[in-house]
UniProtKB/TrEMBL annotation:
The gene is yajC. This is Sec translocon accessory complex subunit YajC. The SecYEG-SecDF-YajC-YidC holo-translocon (HTL) protein secretase/insertase is a supercomplex required for protein secretion, insertion of proteins into membranes, and assembly of membrane protein complexes. While the SecYEG complex is essential for assembly of a number of proteins and complexes, the SecDF-YajC-YidC subcomplex facilitates these functions. Part of the SecDF-YidC-YajC translocase complex. The SecDF-YidC-YajC translocase forms a supercomplex with SecYEG, called the holo-translocon (HTL). Its main location: membrane. It is found in: Cell membrane. It holds the Pfam family YajC. Signal peptide: none annotated. Belongs to the YajC family. It is a single-pass membrane protein. InterPro entries: Preprotein_translocase_YajC. The keyword Transmembrane helix applies. Keywords: Cell membrane, Membrane, Protein transport, Translocation, Transmembrane, Transmembrane helix, Transport.
Length: 94
């Protein structure tokens, strides 16, 4: 009878394993890559926010914020996690 109980749970175990490898694991990898990208932000990088605004990073603040210049003289404060993509990176200063 132990084999029968295991046979009943085997499909559930397989479904969970498939869900893990197709959904959960890639999402965790994508989240880690995004966190690394946000941590590497520096002054001069051209970024795209999740709202679709394109601008240049003017100042990186320690408290999870960056200041982005959208146009000449137009600066906005943006939460780091809302940066969707870094279009061009600047070289680090020596």
């Amino acid at each position: 009878m132990d084999g029968g109980a295991f046979a009943q749970f085997l499909p559930l175990i397989l479904i969970f394993a498939i869900m893990y490898f197709l959904l959960i694991r890639p999402q965790q990898k994508k989240l880690k890559e995004h966190q690394a990208m946000v941590a590497a932000l520096r002054r001069g990088d051209q970024v795209v926010t999740q709202g679709g605004l394109i601008g240049k990073v003017v100042k990186v603040k320690d408290d999870n914020e960056v200041e982005v210049e959208l146009a000449e003289g137009v600066k906005v404060r943006v939460v780091k996690s809302t940066i969707a993509n870094v279009m061009s990176k600047t070289e680090p200063a020596n």
